[in-house]
Amino acid sequence: MLKTKKKQSTSGQIQVQADMTTMPTPERLRKSDFAAGHPHRVVTALDALLKSGDISDQAYAAARKWRRDYLFARFGYQEISSQRLGTTYYKHDEISWRMTRAEVWRTLAEIRTAIGAEAHRRLEWGLIEEVSFTQMAAKIMPHRRVDDARKRVSAQFALTLSRLDEVYQERRRQEIVKRRLPNADA
Questions:
Q1: What residue spans carry the region label Disordered (predicted)?
Q2: At residue 80, does pLDDT exceed 50?
């Protein structure tokens, strides 16, 4: 919400000052849990697992990478840090941009094969749709008590993230070997 204040200067001109602090709408505040601090950020399932110590920093980083890759492959956009704006890595024509997206989509398909379709769907729920563990539990285990189902889903999600980290580590090892032995594929 943008708040403005009008003030009349001594010269008769009206000056407008904008308060650039933004707040979620009341409806959004009721819908999600927010982390303390500014700016307001939704506490995701991933953040909850990291804070509780159920996943490692490496698994957290793998999940963030998977999320960035998914958003790029699916929707075609990336968050680019200001330090990388000047590089030519992100300057593509239409064809090379689509080829880059296709390569990332291929990587995601390989990850889906490695971790399984159900685990991949849970990654989509938790990292893209930002569904809470309670909501996941209601979809996956509607016959169980809510608290018990939430704990089980949380543990399964933590295991999925650990497996995702292992898959990324294995891919990095394979890329290193491939660079050292360029004719390994032949």
A1: 1-22
A2: yes
